[in-house]
Write a structure and sequence with these properties.
By secondary structure, this protein is mainly alpha-helical. Helices cover 73% and strands 0% of the residues. The protein contains 2 helices and no strands. The longest helix has 24 residues, at 4-27.
Length: 45
């Protein structure tokens, strides 16, 4: 039962870090044009 005092704050911190990383990626435009990268691989020799 004592391990929950460690695991719950660690899981909340992990979720917070994941949300910050997702916000950073969206803010930097990582998901703006996802179709052209897949087509670029097919067009290159």
């Amino acid at each position: 039962m004592d391990i929950l005092y460690l695991l719950i704050p660690l899981s909340v911190a992990l979720v917070f870090l994941i949300l910050v990383g997702l916000w950073w990626a969206i803010d930097r435009g990582q998901f703006e044009d996802i179709e052209s990268e897949g087509e670029r691989i097919l067009r290159e020799p």
